[in-house]
Structures are given as structure tokens and as C-alpha cells.
Specification:
The chain has helices at about 5-20, 25-35, 40-65, 70-85, 90-125, 130-160, 165-180, 205-235, 240, 245-260, 270-290, 290-305, 305-320, 325-350, 355-375; strands spanning about 65-70, 190. The protein has about 375 residues and is mostly helical.
Length: about 375
Amino acid sequence: MSPLATAWTGLVALAVAMGIGRFAFTPVLPMMQGEAGVTVAEGGWLAAANYAGYLAGALLATVVRNGSAGSMRGALLAVGMATLAMGFTASFAAWMALRFLAGAASAWVLVFVSAWALERIATASRPARQGQDSLNATVFAGVGAGIGAAGLLVLVLMAVMASAADAWIALGIVALAGSLLIWNALGGSATQAANGAGELQWSLASMRLVFAYGALGFGYIVPATFLPVMAKQALDDPALFGWSWPVFGAAAAASTFVAARWRRRWSARAVWIASQLAMAAGVAIPIAWPALGATAISALLVGGTFMVVTMTGIQEARRVAGGGARTLIAAMTSAFAAGQIAGPLLVSALAGRANAFSVALACAATTLAAGALLLLPERTTGRE
């Protein structure tokens, strides 16, 4: 395939795995609250189950050196089937299991399909650096594109008074259709050779990356899980509050291309710090201004930075760890996954208390800012 075709294949795969497998629960949650009586605490547990599955899938991926085409296809199929099955049961225990499965499969796709795509973009026809950056951005834009598409689909379903079960079934069908679209394009294997396979020498510099990336996982996940719920509290009109999630996804998709331009002038670390501080501000805004406008600004700031931090975090890990980058990236991914499990659990623990979301958002914003400041002692200027 051409590098462009490879990039689009990666985009579709990440849209299915992340936009639906990981984050489709967010826009559907308000529907589940209204129809099935799902509480905020239960929503937190369902989100945590998905993130626990992501942690399990990511840890498994770190000990498997190669992801075969069959395993990548199987993981995409698992995402679609687990999503589809959510619409055919009302059992909370079954929902927990299905969200865990979708999370584990989405982690596998993210690790190996992104590796597969980036390796082939880098080696297929040796595109110029600027062109390669744009193609890499196209791959990672799949996450935001999937989030936005899932949000728009749920918005349409709410407008026609469809049920939450209908939403899950529709999302499952879309996920399976997307998987079939790229089924034959996924060929060969995805290795992690580009991430380095040497031994990591742990240092204060590498530990700072782990903690800062873990802070990202904890900080972004509260709005990333409950943004439509917070918007609904501000204005109970699906035609308006339902737009918060598509806005989040659109910002995430566009951000990867903006970051590709920033990287021509600034180091990965500088972009990481600036993006994480902007995210902290976006998380904090609804605390002082609990209105729909604040939620929209939060969606833009958080959605427009979380994929940038993901991309630049991996780039910085490669710079700091050299040949041991694979181990460092695995540790950062585990810290990230642990953080995003803790976020929904915090919301669940605070559920029922006054200003529960405000307290959770304050904790998230503080953690994000602390993680960004932890990176400051290192060099933050200059293209690397």
C-alpha cells in the first residue's frame, strides 16, 4: 500500500478501537441514566471496567513482541461484538464484562495497529519529514474522528428518541463495518522495534515522565468520561448538550495536525508541557463557571490536547530512554491506565455529595498541572 493508504487504514482502526471501543460509553451514558436508571456511581464503575481492560490489554501488548494481522483483526472484531452486545442485555454485570473486553481489545489495536502504520509510513517510500509528520498525524487523528463520529451518531439517535440499547447496537454495527472496510489492508505484523528493545537505565528523568504521564491519565479522564453528563446538568436539552462530545472529538482530530506543525519549532517536551497546562485549565473552567458555555470550552481544551500529549509523550520517551524506550513507554502506559481507572472511581466515591463533579475536576486539574510542572527542569525549547 501507499503511505497514504496505510495512514487511512490506521485512522479507521483507531476510530473503531478508541472512538467506539473506549469512548462511545461517554455520549451513551446520559441515555442510560434516563432509561435504565444508571447512577453516576454506576457509570463510574462501568468506565473503570473499560479502563481496567485497557490496562490489561496494554500490559499484555508489552510482553508480546509482534502483533500479527490476525490478532489485530480479531481485536477489532472483539470491539465491534462487545459494543453490539451491550444493546442486547440489561445486566449490570454483563455490561461490566463487555466494557472490560472492549477496553482490552482497544488497547491491543492502539499498540499494534499504530506501530504497524507508523513503521510502514516510515519505510514504504521514505516520504519527506514534513510529509511523514502529516501522515503520522492522520493515523492518530483517528481517535478524535471516531469520538466525533460516535458522538454525532448518538446525537442523531437522541433526536429521533431512540433508546440506549439502539445506540449500542448502531455503534456496534458501525464498528464492525469499519473493521470489515480495512480487513484486507491489515497485513504482515506490527513490531515494537522502533520503540527500542534495549535495557532501560532508570533515572530521575525517566521517572518524571512516568509520573507526568500518569497524571495525564487521571486528569483527562474525568471530563472524558462525564462531559455530556455535566453538560446535561447545565441544560437538559439533547439538541444542545449532546454537542459537547462531537466538539471534543473534532478538537482531538484537528489537534494532531496542529501538533505536527508545532513540532517544527518546539521540542516534544515543550509541546507536552504547554498542552497539559492547557488541559488543566480546560478541566478547571467548569468549576468556576458551571454553564454550558464552560463545558464547550472544556471540551475544546481537553479534546484539543489529550492526543497531543499522547504523541509527544511517546516522542519524549524515545529521546530520554534511547534503546530502552520500549520499557519506559510500557511503564508510562501502565501509569496512564492506572490513572484513568482512578478518575472514574473518584467520581463514584464522591457521587451523592454536594459539588461532586467540582471536587473531582479540581483534583484532576491540580494533578495535570503538577504533572506538567514536574517536566520543567528539562530542556523545553528547540526542535529535537
